[in-house]
From TrEMBL, chain A:
Region named Disordered: 1-21
Designated name of the protein: Maltose/maltodextrin transport system permease protein
Source organism: Beutenbergia cavernae (strain ATCC BAA-8 / DSM 12333 / CCUG 43141 / JCM 11478 / NBRC 16432 / NCIMB 13614 / HKI 0122)
Localization in the cell: Cell membrane
The keyword Lyase is assigned to this record: yes
From TrEMBL, chain B:
Main localization, broad class: membrane
Transmembrane segments: 33-55, 91-112, 124-150, 162-184, 205-227, 264-285
Swiss-Prot/TrEMBL GO biological process terms: maltodextrin transmembrane transport
Record GO terms (molecular function): ABC-type maltose transporter activity
Residue ranges constituting the ABC transmembrane type-1 domain according to the UniProt record: 87-285
Name of the protein this chain belongs to: Binding-protein-dependent transport systems inner membrane component
Record keywords, A-Z: Cell membrane, Membrane, Sugar transport, Transmembrane, Transmembrane helix, Transport
Region forming the signal peptide: none
Database matches in Pfam families: BPD_transp_1
Family to which the UniProt record says this protein belongs: Belongs to the binding-protein-dependent transport system permease family. MalFG subfamily.
Species annotation: Beutenbergia cavernae (strain ATCC BAA-8 / DSM 12333 / CCUG 43141 / JCM 11478 / NBRC 16432 / NCIMB 13614 / HKI 0122)
Bilayer disposition of the protein: Multi-pass membrane protein
Localization (cell): Cell membrane
Cellular component terms per the entry's GO annotation: plasma membrane
Length: 534, 300
């Protein structure tokens, strides 16, 4: 507290108490901090207000917490270390740690196509989707109108009054609209869409539904010809008290089940469901459902084979080259080295795409030029595709191993080798008993990270083969060269090529994490790279 | 040179200089042979793609005769596509991400290296654990998070380049903190203590003394971050949805995946241009990169 008294004095005093925080003097640094935090706070308040509008309370409270933390950390004298860590930590918390936990949560839900919203939204969607024209209902003269690009309908109701509305705004009476011989000719607040305009936006017009009132059960107006409107009502009725859906045409009653769907007594369900926690169902599906379990086992084995073989082949080739060029008398070493590093300097996605062209069955350079027109199906035969992937990864990966092996070899002190020589060890013996162990100790952590990297080497597989060739069982979009991460991508359906199944995809992500994490943890413990955290 | 060495080594009958030639071949000659073989292996796809980018016509078949004809039409045609937009997007995203990564990573590494506070050990260990869960594994959750954020702040939602940068910055602390942490530890503490005695504030010590001494590691981290952001595909593909926001990885993939044969010349020209920034940076700074890669491991 005593420091507060000294803050008023701006003149620099060498004898000033070392506990006085620079945060309390009006220095340039403090002003800069003030300005930065003002910007951050302004942004934060904007997000909080926007989140309030959207009723996104998760985002709202997270933002409040982050803001409070930021202001505390930068205006307090105590949280010195946090001042340096907080910016990175904030991003880490939101975009990495939260995301990891959310993946864990989604893994236990049935989030995906047919289950992608809350129950209220699912009920609403069901009511809307199951609308039918009310049998024998009267028809209304109708015109298509637009309000700043947004389409709507205007109708002449049973009393002869004009009502207008859009998809978001239920029908409401419009004063001063002019009707000429049963045809609406002007609606204040809207522009009439002419015949040509209707034809241009035909799909939108036929899909448009304008609610009759705020209550979804009153139905809505739709049209097929843009001249006459009919009242459509949902054949389903939601009973809030009993929490059931009733089909008014058949009288069947649907009650919610544990899977987040409305289910009738005979077991039939309504199409739209909602998200519920389903426990370990996704994991059971991955390991037990024949559609997924079989490919899953094949893919798991191939993923291991791919990761291990990739590390092994690149390491051996890199080591061989490192030994070859670890010779001072060799002229042009640097030129060889620079040229050989080229694949490592090329962005990997480009490498994979270039190789996919080189290995093309009919037009590729390898087949057409090097092999004289042999149409070898490098990327479309299961075995060859696997070889191709390993080969391309060897091309991509050996320079890295070459570099680190060279580094490790040069780091081995000369006196150790001399000592071995004096003890009478030959060249081979020195290699096996001295150089290799030292080299492995030095490179082991990098080999582990290389394994982890290749285990999830999405880019290479996706761009080279896309996981293909497909398995014979075509019910799931998976293939012989898919590794776990590309399997997750395909199953998630996030690119629209398959039904979305976020739950199962997240469950598989967790499985990958557990596998890679366990292996890395064991391996790292062995190599004791954790030692230098003191 | 290697072809010359290969022949004499096979027929050792030559009476004169036999010993010296044989020895030369056994000592150095075979190394040149290996060197040439692997230089060809390493470089031929690159030579091929340069040749394909210069081949008129631009089909895959037409690109197989290396340098049969040289024509810059493919490069000129890039102007009519979205290529330069993607190039600009990629550069912007990669530069901002690597700057942010360097600033955040260096600050965190400084704190871990210089201050002793409760939770420091736990913090370092958790960073190690967190980075075992790469962001790409969580792409579904990232997609859903941005979907939600976008409803509140459109600038941070799907199809926003800013959002993509934020996602990348989420991984800024992970591995980089360790790389920098080790380097910060090698800067003697006496330096900051001396500065403190002279009346420098923490911020002054950090910005004017420490950061200048650790420039090499900052360069390495910035560079590695630039390169990895430049080539990142899966998250960019999910986040960026409209063609004008795509990065090179997403855009060039779409060319090759849609019509391999027809777009090949364009793709090759695009690939050559895209490879240049990274290639040049890498070759100029390879000494530092290699040092940075091995620094962390060889020590342990």
């Amino acid at each position: 507290m005593s420091s507060q008294l000294t803050t008023q004095r701006v003149e620099p005093e060498p004898a000033e108490s070392p506990r006085t925080s620079h945060a309390r003097t009006w220095s340039a640094g403090f002003l800069a901090k003030l300005a930065l935090l003002a910007v951050v706070d302004a942004f934060g308040v904007y997000v909080v207000l926007a989140a309030w509008n959207e009723r996104s309370f998760g985002i709202l409270w997270s933002m409040v917490a982050l803001l409070a933390a930021a202001n505390y950390v930068y205006f307090s004298k105590r949280a010195l270390a946090l001042k340096y860590i907080l910016p990175g930590l904030a991003f880490l918390l939101v975009f990495q740690i939260y995301v990891v936990f959310y993946t864990g949560y989604v893994a236990f839900t049935n989030y995906g196509d047919g289950h992608n919203s809350t129950k209220e939204q699912a009920v609403e969607a069901l009511l809307v989707q199951n609308e039918r024209r009310v049998e024998g209902s009267e028809s209304f003269p109708l015109v298509v109108v637009s309000d700043g690009g947004e389409l709507g309908f205007a109708i002449v109701d049973a009393d002869g009054d004009v009502e207008a509305g859009t998809a978001d705004r239920p029908l409401a009476g419009v004063d001063d609209a002019s009707v000429d011989d049963g045809v609406i000719t002007a609606v204040p607040g809207f522009e009439l869409v002419d015949r040509q305009g209707v034809l241009e936006r035909q799909d939108e017009v036929t899909a448009l539904r304008v609610p009759v009132s705020d209550d979804a059960e009153d139905g809505s107006i739709r049209t097929t010809d843009a001249r006459t409107g009919y009242v459509y009502e949902s054949v389903l009725v939601y009973d809030e008290a009993a929490d059931t859906m009733t089909d008014t045409t058949t009288g069947v009653v649907y009650a919610p089940n544990d899977d987040g769907q409305f289910e009738a007594e005979d077991g039939s369900t309504l199409a739209v469901g909602w998200r519920v926690v389903v426990g370990f169902d996704n994991f059971v599906t991955a390991f037990g459902d024949a559609r997924y379990a079989q490919p899953f086992v094949a893919i798991l084995l191939w993923t291991f084979a791919f990761a291990i073989l990739s590390v092994l082949t690149t390491f051996l080739l890199g080591l061989f080259l490192a030994i070859t060029f670890n010779e001072d008398r060799l002229r042009g070493r640097r030129i060889y080295r620079t040229l050989m590093i080229l694949p490592y300097a090329l962005p990997p996605f480009l490498a994979a795409l270039i190789w996919s062209g080189l290995l093309n069955r009919r037009f590729g350079f390898i087949n057409e030029v090097l092999l004289g027109g042999a149409e070898i199906p490098w990327l479309t035969d299961p075995t060859l595709a696997k070889l191709a992937i390993l080969g391309v990864n060897l091309w991509l990966g050996f320079p890295y191993m070459f570099l680190i092996c060279t580094g490790a070899l040069q780091a081995i002190p000369g006196d150790v080798l001399e000592a071995a020589q004096i003890d009478g060890a030959g060249r081979v013996r020195t290699w096996r008993s001295v150089v290799l162990p030292l080299l492995l100790v030095a490179t082991a952590p990098l080999l582990i990270s290389s394994f982890a990297f290749n285990f999830n080497n999405f880019t290479l597989v996706y761009m080279l083969t896309g996981g293909g060739p497909r398995f014979a069982d075509a019910s799931v979009p998976l293939g012989h060269t898919d590794i776990l991460i590309t399997m997750v991508y395909s199953i998630s359906g996030i690119d629209g090529n398959a039904p979305r199944n976020y739950g199962l995809a997240s469950a598989l992500s967790i499985v990958i994490f557990v596998i890679v994490g366990t292996i890395s943890a064991i391996a790292f413990r062995r190599t004791r790279s954790l030692e230098d955290i003191n | 040179m290697a072809t010359q060495t290969a022949t004499p080594s096979t027929r050792r009958a030559a009476p004169v200089r036999r010993g010296s030639f044989g020895r030369w071949a056994a000592d150095l000659g075979w190394r040149h042979l290996v060197g040439v073989i692997f230089v060809v292996f390493a470089a031929f796809p690159l030579v091929y793609v340069v040749s394909a980018s210069l081949a008129p016509g631009g089909t895959l078949t037409g690109s197989n005769a290396l340098f049969a004809a040289v024509d810059s039409a493919n490069y000129a045609d890039l102007g009519a596509t979205a290529f330069w937009t993607w190039f600009g997007n990629t550069m912007m995203i990669a530069v901002v991400t690597s700057l942010g990564t360097v600033l955040m990573g260096a600050a965190a590494a400084y704190a871990f290296s210089r201050f002793r506070f409760s939770g420091r050990r736990v913090g370092l260990t958790s960073l190690l654990v967190v980075q075992m869960f790469p962001q790409m594994l969580a792409f579904v959750a990232i997609f859903l998070l941005l979907l939600g954020l976008g409803n509140v702040v459109p600038a941070l939602g799907l199809n926003s380049r800013v959002a993509l940068i934020c996602v990348y910055l989420g991984g800024a602390l992970g591995v980089n903190t360790f790389l920098m942490y080790g380097f910060f530890n090698t800067v003697p503490k006496e330096l900051d203590e001396a500065a403190k005695i002279d009346g420098a504030t923490h911020a002054q010590i950090y910005w004017t003394i420490i950061l200048r001494l650790v420039v090499p590691i900052l360069a390495v981290v910035g560079l590695l971050s630039f390169i990895s952001t430049f080539s990142e595909f899966i998250v960019a593909r999910i986040v960026l949805q409209s063609e004008s926001n795509w990065t090179l990885a997403v855009g060039l993939y779409s060319w090759v995946s849609s019509q391999l044969d027809a777009n090949w010349g364009l793709f090759a020209a695009g690939a050559v241009i895209s490879a240049i920034p990274v290639l040049v940076l890498f070759l100029f700074l390879q000494k530092y990169i290699v040092g940075g890669l091995t620094a962390g491991s060889v020590k342990g």
